[in-house]
Amino acid sequence: MHGLSCPIPKGAFYAFPKIENNKYKSDKEFVLELLKSKGVLTVHGSGFGTKYGSGHFRMVFLPEINVLEKALDKIEEFVT
Questions:
Q1: Residue ranges of the chain with pLDDT lower than 50?
Q2: What is the CATH number of the domain that holds 39?
């Protein structure tokens, strides 16, 4: 997606995309705005440590594929 980059997860049940867009003051602001505007719940990366987590967010991909597709579509709308 434009505005995000993400390595391919290796054996994890989550992804940890980097927020490339400097529109937000922090990753926490990003996830709160995403939740408010699109109803998609993720976790701010700095909650996992500021050294490696700042500027990222975490999302799990355990839900059914149709739920994930809807969520990813909403995230794409949000970052575009």
A1: none
A2: 3.90.1150.10
